[in-house]
Write a structure and sequence with these properties.
The structure holds 2 protein chains of 2 kinds. Chain A is mainly beta. Helices cover 0% and strands 49% of the residues of chain A. In chain A, the strands form 2 sheets. In chain A, strands 2, 4, 5, 6, 9, 10 and 11 form a 7-stranded mixed sheet that branches. Chain A has a 4-stranded antiparallel sheet with strand order 1-3-8-7, with no helix packed on it. In chain A, a hairpin with a 5-residue loop joins β7 (65-67) and β8. Chain B is globular. The chains are: A mainly beta, B mainly beta.
């Protein structure tokens, strides 16, 4: 049981480039989330999904797009990367929305030059 | 979601019991209280969750007074490996009106030998 995995672990982009972060979970969870974490700050929710084929905006959605074509995968896209998107990105999944138990991946460290 | 307030940092020594208190004066009737732990370069990990009174698991205890306006995470006999950031969250998950989980800045616990 791998839990939640994220690809890639590290990435450096130039301003304006695009990329996709992949999150996969093998726990058959319905709900998945993308967060970003900046130095000295807590996590901020970017987008989330309550099931296959659904997505919704979180706290800081601007500049990001997501897709949930398969239940086990949740993709985060940056169409035109900006230096302000330099951050550590965490994916998480949960069995239900009731309560707050989420399972997190190891993170992707993204630097935009 | 109810705003939470917790100390920015705490120091302790190996073998001591550590209590981290979180204030959440505006907690709503349906809100749960959840604590996460985050080690450097890792995603947060769920520790414990409760609604009222006391909850105990193999890792920690959570004490919640009758008015539920605060909660205390208790870590028994900490070791160096308990050095981490601890987050207090209050909410009913993404079914709340705001649709997000607020992690805040957390409490950085430093355990010394």
């Amino acid at each position: 049981n791998a839990g939640v995995t994220q690809t890639p672990k590290f990435r450096v982009l130039k301003t304006g480039q695009s990329m996709t972060l992949l999150c996969a979970q093998d726990m058959n969870h319905e709900y998945m989330y993308w967060y970003r974490q900046d130095p000295g700050m807590g996590l901020r929710l970017i987008h989330y999904s309550v099931g296959e084929g659904t997505t919704a905006k979180g706290e800081v959605p601007d500049g990001y797009n997501v897709s949930r074509l398969k239940k086990q995968n949740f993709l985060l896209g940056l169409e035109s990367a900006a230096p302000s998107q330099t951050s550590v990105y965490f994916c998480a999944s949960s069995y239900s929305l009731q309560g707050n138990e989420q399972f997190f991946g190891p993170g992707t460290r993204l630097t935009v030059l | 979601l109810a705003k939470t307030t917790q100390p920015i940092s705490m120091d302790s020594y190996e073998g001591q019991e550590v209590n981290i208190t979180c204030s959440h004066n505006n907690i709503a009737t349906n809100d749960y209280i959840t604590w996460y732990q985050q080690f450097p370069s890792q995603g947060p990990r769920f520790i414990i969750q409760g609604y009222k009174t006391k909850v105990t698991n193999e890792v920690a205890s959570l004490f919640i007074p009758a008015d539920r306006k605060s909660s205390t995470l208790s870590l028994p006999r900490v070791s160096l490996s308990d050095t981490a950031v601890y987050y207090c969250l209050v909410g009913e998950g993404l079914e709340s009106n705001t649709g997000k989980l607020i992690f805040g800045q957390g409490t950085t616990l430093q355990v010394k030998p």
